[in-house]
Structure formats: structure tokens, C-alpha cells
Amino acid sequence: MNLNTLKPAEGSVQKRKRVGRGTGSGMGGTSTRGHKGAQSRSGYSAKKNFEGGQMPLQRRVPKFGFKNINRVEYKPINLDTLQQLIEKAGVTSIDIDVLMQHGLAGKNDKIKILSRGEISSVVEVKAHGFSQKAIEAIEKAGGKAITL
């Protein structure tokens, strides 16, 4: 093997299309862009959802419903989940920091305690919202439900 016999691998090098180099090249004149129209001109770029003049999908699909921009999304946590947390971690007070440490809530989540399951431990629960039955169950067990 000599340096003068080295060649690139088969198919790794593609021949560049040299446009606008005279009519004899077969790519002169309009430089393969055709005559007139937006795509023949420099600076042309189609809009993201442009479908060639056809009615775009986002306009063809029927729209319905209403999205309230003031809606408050809560992360629901049930009483049985709190009871498991109390048994596992042995906490007497549950707030957002405790829930974050145990992976039950994120730092920007608003938390609402719901009443599925039972709670038997005396515990102080701090959250952004409670269902009425959850408050009753926590207070019946001897704890406190504090709304933030």
C-alpha cells in the first residue's frame, strides 16, 4: 500500500452539484430552480406548516372547548399515601418540603389532600387544599389540616 493508491471508501464522497455554470453543464440558466415562482428566488423559505396552498391541517381540524388561563392545577395526594409516608419516615408533621424529599411532589406543585384510604396517626398536614372528607378524617384521627 502506497500513499498514492489511497482512495476514499465507496460511497463516502458524493459529487457536488455545480449549478449555474453554463448551459452545457445541464444545470445552467435557471440553476435547476425552474422558471418564476417563490422557490426560484433567493431568500425563499416556506413557513413551518405550509402545505403548498392547500388548507393547512391546523385550519382544517375543527376546534372546540375552552382553556381557562387562570386554572390552578393541584397535585393530588391521598390519605393512604400520607399514612404510608408516616409509617415509612416516622414524621409527625407533613408539609411541602417533606413531600418533596420523598418524591411525592415537585417544588412548584400545589398540593391537595384527598380522602381515599384512611389515616390512623396523629399528624399535622400543611397543603394548598383539602377535600372536606380529608379534613374530617385527619381531625378524627387527632391531627390538624392547615391550608397554606
TrEMBL record:
NCBIfam families: rplO_bact (TIGR01071)
Taxonomic superkingdom: Bacteria
Gene Ontology biological process terms, A to Z: translation
Record function comment: Binds to the 23S rRNA.
Segments for region (Disordered): 1-52
Alphabetical keyword list: Ribonucleoprotein, Ribosomal protein, RNA-binding, rRNA-binding
Gene Ontology CC terms, in alphabetical order: cytosolic large ribosomal subunit
Composition skew (Gly residues), residue ranges: 21-31
Protein name: Large ribosomal subunit protein uL15
Keyword rRNA-binding: yes
GO MF entry, a single one: rRNA binding
Domain Large ribosomal subunit protein uL15/eL18: 76-145
Assembly notes: Part of the 50S ribosomal subunit.
PROSITE patterns assigned to the protein according to its UniProt record, in alphabetical order: RIBOSOMAL_L15
Family as reported in the entry's similarity comment: Belongs to the universal ribosomal protein uL15 family.
